[in-house]
Amino acid sequence: SPPGLLLLTSFLLHVEEGHASPTRLVCDNRLIQKYIGEAKDMEKRAGHCQALPALSCPTVLPLVDFSLQQWKSKSNEIKRREILCDLALLVGAVAGAQGQVTQECGARQLSQLYRHANSFILLLQTFSWEAGPWEPGCSPRSMEQTHITGIFLTYRQLVQGKLRFFFHDLAKDLCK
């Protein structure tokens, strides 16, 4: 089964009727560690692909570094929206790169990354503390990248950083 499907399934199995409560995903620290490990593995496998070409059309990636002090001062909803913006830009970058990479190894890794990032988008869309639908009209800080490995690095940093801290913050509220 694709890992993205596993993520979504494990989440859906722990949703209480009427109110999203993904307690297992946020309360079981081993799951986020598993996703960090998968992000590292994808990055390593992409790095081992032979002769990955530079992208002829640079892709735009979110800058996912952050100040822990500033992060702590944000509400969970603001954090969720920020991560969704980063993921939306990342998914767009992966899709753009997929159109430029014909080499099988690189294409396979990009396809897997695309599925993982989309699964996190679906998951994060189920959390919402404010009324109203999520609009992708956000503009996160970004940079242009011509190296495919940079896309995997950005994804790993996002999962290891903002997503891990977001789940940690949610755990404080959900896992009492």
Automatic annotation (TrEMBL):
UniProt cross-references to InterPro entries, sorted A to Z: 4_helix_cytokine-like_core, EPO/TPO_CS, EPO_TPO, Thrombopoietin
Source organism superkingdom: Eukaryota
GO biological process, one term: positive regulation of hematopoietic stem cell proliferation
Keyword terms, alphabetized: Disulfide bond, Glycoprotein, Hormone, Secreted, Signal
Keyword Disulfide bond: yes
Main location: secreted
A cellular component annotation (GO) from this entry: extracellular region
Subcellular location: Secreted
Gene Ontology terms for molecular function: cytokine activity; hormone activity
Position of the signal peptide: 1-20
Family classification: Belongs to the EPO/TPO family.
The name this protein goes by in its record: TPO protein
Organism name: Pygoscelis papua (Gentoo penguin)
